[in-house]
Amino acid sequence: MQVIYIDTLFIVNLVMDIFIFITASLLLSQKLDLKRIFISAFLAASLYCITLIIPELQTLPLNLYYVILPCMPIIYLFRPNTITKFFKVYLVNIMSASMIGGIAFSVYYQSAWYMGKQPSILIPFLCGGGVSLLVYSCLTFIRKKILLLHCEAKISFVLSGEKITLEGIVDTGNTLYTPFSKQPVTVVSMDKIDKFLCSEIKEFISDLETSENLADMMAKTSSSLQLIPFRSVGCTNGMIAAIRVDDVTISRGDYTYSHDDIMVGITKNHVFKDDSYSVLIHPDLVN
Fold it and tell me: Does the pTM exceed 0.70?
């Protein structure tokens, strides 16, 4: 008879729960803090071990293990605010647990049968990590090569005498225009062009973040440096600085679009979380 000590059982559950929560977060497209993932996994592993340590709890119905116990770490980690979201999160986590647990322990016991002895406890860990990595790779491939493929574009322009080439996407949700001339505005991450910006523009962007007097900022604008009003989630009335760049070329699939100049809005945030794209190209520039 195989004997498993409680500390080993706890470590196995802790690591496997971490993989389960990471996989579920990938499937739900929900970015989670690694600290919260660890705390949730620690809570889930602790609760499971407690039910084995305390004899009275072992007489409770199995529903306790499959329904009530998983709910607490799931609610803490994913914070669903409606019943519908809770069931969605719950089912994705159960599915992830079934997938990872099924593969990991199937490989573990098959290895035990093949080798004729107890295999290393690292096998479930490697399987759990492999499944999480596979899910991440598949979702990344689908997003980049299928969902975003028709939106991908490469943009080149001249700024301060230097030619800059960046990867971007054609963002149909980009509805930014200059206030009076109604020129379409493309958005670029500041860190990609920071070294090409003159001190005057950098100072203007810095002042825009702290200034409470819009009239003073408007007085500093020109045809090549403008303020663009925008709205976004969490900001119903904001301003973004935009500069004029020259000799613009946009390559999208088999098509190339050229413009003498365009307005480029500058944001200090990454336009994509993983920084795979750094430009949100206005759709008017490729139509």
Answer: no
Spatial CA neighbour of 27 closest among 107, 81, 98: 98
pLDDT digits (tens, 9 = 90+) for 122-154: 788 888 888 888 888 888 777 666 665 568 889
Smallest Cα–Cα separation from 225: which of 178, 269, 258, 280?
A: 178
Is the distance from CB of 97 to CB of 81 less than 8 angstroms? no
Q: Report helix, strand or coil for 231.
A: strand
What distance separates the 2 farthest-apart alpha carbons in the chain? 82
Residue-range domain boundaries for the chain: 6-147, 150-286
Q: What is the C-alpha separation between 63 and 68, in angstroms, rounded?
A: 7
Torsion of CA 177, 183, 189, 192, to 10 degrees: -170
Q: Tens of pLDDT along 112-124?
A: 777 777 777 778 8
Positive or negative torsion for Cα 59, 60, 63, 66: negative
Each as own residue / partner, the long-range contacts of residues 76-82 (CB below 8 Å, 24 or more positions apart, any chain) are 76/36, 76/39, 76/40, 76/43, 77/21, 77/32, 77/36, 77/37, 77/39, 77/40, 78/24, 78/25, 78/28, 78/30, 78/32
One-letter identity of residue 19? F
Q: What's the CATH code, domain 150-286?
A: 2.40.70
Position 204, amino acid: F
Mean pLDDT, residues 255-270 taken together:
92
